[in-house]
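Data availability (excerpt). The following record was deposited with the supplementary files.
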Amino acid sequence: MKKILLPLVAIMLSMAACQKEDNGILRLEVEHYANDAKVHLSNAYAAWDNGDKIWINGGDPKTVTISGNTASIAGVTESSTGYKAIYPADWANTSGTTITYPKALKYETNDNGEQIINAPMVACAAAGTDVLKFKNVGSILAINVTGVSKVIKIKVIAEDNTPINGTATINYNDERPTLGSTLTNGSNTVILFCHNGVTVPDGGKTFYIAMPPVSAKLTIRVYGENYYYGNTQATSHSMQANYGYNVPFNTVGLDPEPYGVFQVSADKIVKFAPGNLRYTEGATNPWSFCSTQYEFNYDNGGANGVWDYFGWSTDGPTSFSYGMSQSMERGDFRGQNFKDWGDAVNAQGNLGTGWRTFTEPELACLFGNANWLYGGVDRPGVTIGNTTGCLYIHARVNNVAGLILFPDNDFDWPIYVAQQPTHYNYPPSDWRTYNFWNTAPIPSYTLAEWTSLELEGCVFLPAAGYYVGSSRYGSNYSPEGQYWTSSGDPDGSCFYLGFSQYGYVFAGGYNDASLYCRYSVRLVRDVEDPE
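Predicted structure:
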């Protein structure tokens, strides 16, 4: 891929030579300075990498190879009508008449840790010529970030719906190629995804984004962990071809906005704990969260001193502490009031404060059932592809079945996760059969893919099963999951989230259960001001 090592003022990227050979195969050579295979042009640096793909005169893309200071491509048939070439090859259409700027870009680095940029270049030459000159037909946005310890993604939004991704026509112009001024089938947003996050040193870090030659007023959002910062530029940028633009982005004076949050009522949003609740007998800090969102203990039962499952928690004088008992006697769990697991976690102190168990009405809002149950407010969900109102999906994460919940703001499907679901929210009737988890076309995500989704604020609730007494229900073959709410009657039954081996989801309303059933607990805390 093309690497741009800035400072970036004006960038004219690379000159190449076409050399005809006796066998009729044309070889593309790129001139470099010194042994590091870099070309210095107007205070900018560019270099080819082994494996770069170039579209040339149609057919399969040609692969760049480096030998000393020379980059070349082999297998190009000599043409009597001349040569047209485009980099990156996958941005070109089959006929070489257009370039498509993608909406989503990957942050990638070379062996030296320098960011790799797909800076689109076009070249053309008449038949018989010895020189093919690549021209940079777009511009580069250099965003100098300070004040954020780690960047998860950067989003650039053009005002007035000016497209900054989409398809542009190439004008070859007698070996002086340019792009047409209109982008089609595009949108006003470009996103640079930083897989696992990119650390920003104390002095700041510059991130580079290839942009089409447009004029627009830009809003830039830099996403750290849990919060993002937005800054709208005071004036429009006229991004000319062959130029780069430096944009300082200091978070000082900017109000952080939370993301990865979930609406649970008309006026309340929450963040979820990073894993299911766990209690370890005899530990210095017995309360903890499971180390990952998909973790739970199949063989727990409390017998080994580790509790991942709890009966409903009350304050009665004979009730067990926070529901930790294998008793099947309802009276053993009765009390006057619910006793929140969050209070114990908050009192312990090492996991922060503000943790609590969500209520049944909040559960209904979370899963889109509040309006039809109570005339209440349902959370809006997000748009994924062409589907709006996406709240959750059934999925496997690291081969663990469960529900993935999508946050309500600034979620973007990560470029690193190829498989998008075919259905969102409550599964269709023809999916809801016995052995649902093994027959329905639900997606399965690797640990690396889940990391990308988790960084976007997704929550995973594993189908951890449940206990009645010492008997366990649910397995990885026929998974089901149950999670307590804080709503219920301490003398009778209480409400829970349930999702079954048939694919049904019970979230809100009269899905109550006996107090002695031991279910999973996932705490939340209200989001107000940044910590």
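Summary of structural features: The first helix runs from residue 341 to 348.
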